[in-house]
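#lab-general

N.A. 3:47 PM
ok so I finally got the sequence cleaned up, no stray characters, all 358 residues accounted for. can someone with queue access submit it? mine expired

B.Y. 3:52 PM
send it over

N.A. 3:53 PM
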Amino acid sequence: MSAQREEKEFQILAKAEAGNRISTQEALFLWQQGIFQNLMRSAEKIRQKRIQAGRVSYTAFRVVNYTNLCNIECSFCSFMDEVGSGKGYTLTADEILKKIEEAQAQDVHQLFLQGGVNPDLPFDYYLSTLKTIREHFPSIHIRAFSPVEVLFMEKITGLPLEDVLKSLQQAGLNSFPGAGAEILSDRVRDILSPLKADVSEWLRAMETAGRLGLKQSTNIVWGSEETDQEIIEHLNHLRNLQDSTGAVLSFVPWTFQAQTKKFRIRKVPPHEYLKMVALSRMFLDNIPHIEVSIMVAGKQLGELGLFAGADDINSPVIEENVLRSFGLKSIAEAEDFIRSAGFTPVRRNFNFEEGLKS
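B.Y. 4:20 PM
back already:
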């Protein structure tokens, strides 16, 4: 039986290394029965064919959470405050501008603007905030909101989602994060966040944004109620999304962190994290970049991920309120980290363009 397993693993890995698409069934076999060191070796071979050898990219950005008031109430989130609780906050445009000024003083010229779903905010808040940022910082790259947030904007405006996104683009939006995905399984979403957009709605938002030319990131967050089959289902949704739009530039694996008492997590061991990095490089054959989030994985595991098919470290990040950060705090620290791992650091922006301020 062991010989049969080894032969099947060898055949699937050889198929992937040759540039041929592996099936969901083959991916599931690798996830459940593959040896993680073998997956790492194959994924690194594939990475070297697709990404110039010896280079690892990084990007610098400031996260600004414009509000923590939210009516979605995800069971795993400790950041949000309930609407009507008398707690929580919503930032003014001037407060956001001040945070951007602080970031630019550190040579950081990208903004990741994201918040809770706050029903008290009108659509004009989002538009006027983007316009004000753009007026004061004409060259800043603004990555903002999420599928869940823009679906809320669609609801309060009564406009088609495409028109909502076009209005945001005209106001200053440059790119769009695939946040709020967690696990793209309606069964899991009903357990973790029953008020959040279901899989079809999340994908509709991403597809609409992609068709409008908004470049995107994607991710997975696992380590809770999901099954192995649902993990592969999630990856397949992302691969199909990219087949449809071609707008996805990167994928980053994250694991759930313990934040609330009502949320059960499973501690993901390091070898499983590395297997995810490697499998994503093989299975997501149409997504060019695989990131390791040093902020979540930490430096030691993140460095190993660079030998498992990843080509980017998604750091440094200034101000992270939602997750506990184990990350890199400065551009110099990010470059030192990459060099110490044996690679040449390459600074890029959110759209993976090099030689521009990020």
